[in-house]
Amino acid sequence: MSKTSSADAPANGPRYPDYPKPPFPPQTQELPGSFRKMDPKPDHGETSWRGAGRLQGMATLITGGDSGIGRAVAIAFAREGADVALSFLNEHEDAADTVRLVTEAGRRCLALPGDIADPAHCRHIVARVAEEFGRLDVLVNNAAHQDTFETIDDITDEEWQRTFAVNIHAMFYLAKAAVPHMRPGASIINTASINADAPNPGLLAYATTKGAIQNFTGGLAQLLAEQGIRVNCVAPGPVWTPLIPASMSAEKTSKFGSNYPMKRPAQPVELASAYVMLAEPMSSYVSGATVAVTGGKPLI
Question: Are the CB atoms for 36 and 94 separated by under 8 Å?
Fold first, then answer.
C-alpha cells in the first residue's frame, strides 16, 4: 500500500495529508459494514478537525451518522459548535463511538437507531430531535444503501425497492417532517454522488437514486426558497467507507479509487468541509447547488 508524499511541500507552506493509495489489502464485509474492521482505518477527522464556531448553537440531524461521511460530518459539526442527532440502522458500536466524540466536543448527542425506509420512523426521529433540541437547523440526508450487480437479472425486485426506499424516499419523508421545525436560515444537505452524472453500471440501482437525489435537491430548493430554507447536495467521488468492502468484491476493494486523478479514494474527513460550508450562515445565498468532491474528476 503506497502513500502520497508531502516531502516537497515548502517548509512554511501547506502540508497535505499523507493519505493511503491503493492497492489496499483485499477485504470484504457484510452489509452495512463497520469502519472498525477496515484496513486501512478511515480518517473521519478524529484527530485533525479543529472547529472555529461556524455552527455554534445549531441543532442538526445526520442520517448514516455512525460511520463514513456521516461520522466525519458529525465530528466536524460538533467541533463547530452544533448539537448532533445521529440516525443509523443497527451499527450500534460504530454509533456509540461517534456519540463519544460528539460529547467530548462538549455538545449534546442523540442516538436514533432504526430503519429510515419506514416513513413512520422518519417522522419519529425528526420529532425526537425537535423535542430534545427544541429546534432543527440542519438536516443532512446522508444514509445510503448500495450493492453491486453484474447484470440486470441479478437485481431482485426487493433490492431495487430497498435502494429507493433508503436512498431517496426517506429524503422526502425526512424533509417533509423537518420543514415545520425549521426557521429561516435552516438548511437541508443531501448526499448525491458522481454517479448522478456518470453512472457506474454495476451500481445501477444506487446510481439511479443518486440522479433522483440531485433532481430532488434542485426542485426542493426552489420550493422552500421563500421560507428561507436552503437545500443543497454534495456529490462525492470514491470515498473509503464501510459500504465499499461491504458491497464490492475483495479485488475491486483493493483497487478502489485508483482510476481517479488523485489515484486514491477520499477519506471521509475530506468531505466534511463541504457540509460545514453548506450549513453555515455565511452560505446564505447558496441553494440548489451541487458541490462536487471528486478528487479532480469533473462532473459531466
Answer: yes
Quick count: other Cβ atoms within 10 Å of Cβ 192? 28
Does residue 239 lie in a domain region? yes
Could you check whether the bond before residue 119 is cis, i.e. omega within 30 degrees of 0? no
- Which residue, chain included where needed, has cell 456509540? 96
271-296: per-residue pLDDT in tens? 999 999 999 999 999 999 999 999 99
Examine residue 42 and state whether it is found in any structural domain, yes or no. Answer: no
In a domain, 214, yes or no: yes
C-alpha grid cell, residue 17: 495529508
Q: Are 39 and 24 in contact (CB under 8 A)?
A: yes
**In the chain, where do the E strands start and end?**
59-63, 83-88, 109-113, 138-141, 187-191, 230-236, 290-293
Which distant-in-sequence residues (6+ apart) come within 8 Å of 273 by Cβ? 76
Largest Cα–Cα distance in the chain? 57
Indicate the number of domains in the chain.
1
Report how far residue 52's alpha carbon sits from residue 117's, in angstroms, rounded to the nearest whole number.
35
Answer whether 32's CB lies under 8 Å from 64's CB.
Answer: no
What beta strand segments (E) does 137-289 contain? Answer: 138-141, 187-191, 230-236
pLDDT tens, 163-218?
999 999 999 999 999 999 999 999 999 999 999 999 999 999 999 999 999 999 99
For the question of whether the overall pTM of this predicted structure is more than 0.85, the answer is yes
Backbone angles phi, psi at 264, to 5 degrees: -160, 160
Compute CA 187 distance to the chain's CA centroid, rounded to the nearest angstrom.
15
Within 11-52, where are the H helices? none
Cell digits for 188? 437541508
* Best CA proximity match to 274, nearest among 54, 10, 27, 17: 54
Active-site positions read 206
CATH number of domain containing 98: 3.40.50.720
For cell 456529490, what's the residue? 235
Query: Among residues 63, 2, 35, 22, which one has the least CA distance to residue 245?
Result: 35
Encoded amino acid at 266, one letter: A
